[in-house]
Amino acid sequence: MTEVSANRPEMGVAAPLKISARNVSVFYGAKQALKNVSLDVSSEQVTAFIGPSGCGKSTFLRCFNRMNDTIDTARVTGEIRLDGRDINSPDMDVVQLRARVGMVFQKPNPFPKSIYENIAYGPRIHGLARGKVELDEIVENALRRAGLWDEAKDRLGESGTALSGGQQQRLCIARAIAVDPEVILMDEPCSALDPIATAKIEELIDDLRGRYAIVIVTHNMQQAARVSQKTAFFHLGSMVEYGDTSMIFTNPVQRRTKDYITGRYG
Amino acid sequence: MREPNAHTVKSFDDDIALLRSIISRMGGLCEAQIVGAVDALVTRNMDAAARVVAEDARIDALEAEAEALAVKIIALRAPLANDLREIVAALKIAGVLERIGDYAKNIAKRASVVAQAPPIGPVIIVPEMARVVVSMIRDVLDAFVDRDVDLARAVCERDRGVDDFYNSLFRSLLTFMMENPHYITPSTHLLFVAKNLERIGDHATSVGEMVHFAVTGEHLTDRPKSDDTSTYLNKSSDDAGFSDEP
Amino acid sequence: MTGFSPNAVLSPDDREPTNWQSARMRRRVEARYRAELFFKLAGLGALLLAGAFLAFLLFTIVRDGASGFRHSEVRISVQFSPQLLGIDPVAASGPDAAAVIRRGDYVGLMQATTAQLGLPVDVVSEGAWLALRRAVTDDPRVLGTTRTLWVPVTSSIDLLAKGKFDLARPAISRGISDRDVAAWRSLESRGLLRMRFNSLFMTEADSTAPELAGIAGAALGSLLTVLVALGLAFPIGVMAAVYLEEFAPRNRWTDMIEVSINNLAAVPSIIFGLLGLAVFLNFFNMPRSAPVVGGATLALMTMPVIVIAARLAIKAVPPSIRDAGLGIGASPIQLVFHHILPIALPGIMTGSIIGTARALGETAPLLLIGMRAFVTDVPQGFASPATVLPVQIFLWSDDVQRGFVEKTSAAIIVLLVVLLLLNSVAIYLRNRYERQL
After folding, report:
1. In whole angstroms, what is the distance from residue C147 CA to residue C142 CA?
2. pTM (predicted TM-score)
3. Which residues of B touch C3 (CB under 8 A)?
């Protein structure tokens, strides 16, 4: 048994389906990094991917916005559908896909431009604002939603790289939000941050959960437990178990999942 | 079902082993207390009874130790899944064992009183009931240490026998009291002793349920209640003793 | 899988505790200190040796070239007589005044004036009459008046005034005739000579007379040539680098191209001269000796350098920036122009400036395409004949006239100063680049 679908909802109505992946495999040259993974990601929910290093969780995450395309030797098979449409089909514009599916990276990477320009860049290149006033509004909204407005509103012209680590990461989240995505992918967003900054980001994720589908890859199991509603455990390229977070962490079905989360690595 | 592989961080295993050993020791003490109290009752030995009463302090101390250790493990190790269930179960079991110890102390106290009155017949049943209850405690704690759900479930079934003992003792004591009114005081104490033992049996059963949940993550289905004293009415009296079981 | 048992660690009981204070250890430490001292001294020695060579070079050049920036002038009293000049005073204030003035016989006036000095040899420079004409052109009212002017002397007098001859030696081996020496002494004693900054050196083009020769022509020629070279090599080089780094697939063809470009950067520059000769001059029939051809040839030479520098700069852009750009949905072109090039630009410019400095100092390829002609005019545009500073230096160094010795060294000083400035700009940019990221 290689997968357990999310058929044990804890309460109420199932959240709307956003991304569905079926039999996804990723090859780097001859080496298979991801083996036949199928799972669903729902809107208004945080889904966490956990697992040891090299288990394929980041690789899988990067399939959702086709970032693996930038790697020459990478080959993706299987089907990934966003709102029902196959994202790997030739008539899906990858540039627009990446606006709809935003990404926040492990090390905060603001552009070496001003705070305002960092946020405004995305809407500008996608033509989302019809004038400076509208662009200003988008920037302010994004910064507010990311919880950075009060700290940044008097420093919009300063370089984005002058902020602290936690602020930079929130800036990157604001940058992703500014293009009004539907899904936000986060690849270990807090691993470079101190506990206070981490807590602020986790709070932010909680806030954002209502508007976006969020998928977060994390090494930190406690973070996955705190932040997500659904968790998938990956090991050696396969998805071992996927279910409600509370069940995964109190009573997982698979032996490998149990060993990993209780710290029995052998 | 054993966990064959250990935690990567060995000191975590050491902590859990320590917690289990405290529980085991508490269990051993409880068994000894029950046996000692019932012996004191049957042999009418007031000194033995007094010793049992004093020994209860050790069980209380162990419970405090177990609780502190469990809290420390939760804070420092952030246990998950089966580890978490086991720690929580250990915490609850320590509390239950402490209450069992209190029941044993209570039996010893009543033994002192009963010893001052002439001996009464139905006291014979008590040691047998105590034996069953002690074996239940031993087995259920073995089940906890070995993570043996089958043994735990078996223990839960044995509670029926304890309840039967209690029912028969209850009836015979009532009859005895009706026939020997001047023995009502010691008989009433004996009734309470029987009640304590029956309650110990119930507690052992609930420990068995905790063990089941700790190992499997699922609850045992409702356990059978065969204590029918609340439904029994003596034709010559209006009210029978109500069991405080729901 | 076996667990890691702490008891399996090598127990340190097997080893003797190390005695760090023993004689053997102390000897090791001393040997190490000696080796480090030797290394430091060797490095310092190499540095000092290189510094000595450099100091010697600079000293020699400055000693020889400093005097090139000064020249001697002689005082003459000029009577701007319209009759001698052959200028009609009426016409000189009429509508056609400029042309009339220009046609005056200033050479004759100069000859007449110098005759007054009473010396058997020419002491005034053959181009000094231009000063007379300039005086009248600037202010026609001097016509009919007598003015005192300072004009440049001949090279012989100039060199005598600068003490370039060893007068103790006999006339045959001295290099200067007795009459020139007598003339100079005469002028000196009459207080008619002065030494001034040689502005002609900066404003005039090449000339047969050393006292009139200047680097303006060569400097402007260098500038035009380098502009053409940079204007061609920079866009092509940067775009090639962008394509190779960002868009080209990784296959055998692109590998071959990369190897070829790296090798091109090491090809001797004279080969590019041959290429320019064959292609630009013989095939395309472009004007010989013009900055456009020289620039094109130098562009061929500079482009591989720029491509290599640009590729390195683009490779050095952190992948996190690419990830961020791609993640927000930038297209490949937007990624290049909005993110990668701005960050790589300082590195690209450093490489370009270094390539340009190299191009500025090139002589061989330009000689081959004909920029060795004797060009007396400052170039008017990209297609007019010109020469460049290094070639000018080469030509002057070859000239028999003694006056050109100091000019050669002075021109070398100018070239070195320009190169120093360019390299300083490159270093400044590189430091800013390192600080920014």
Report:
1. 8
2. 0.78
3. 6, 8
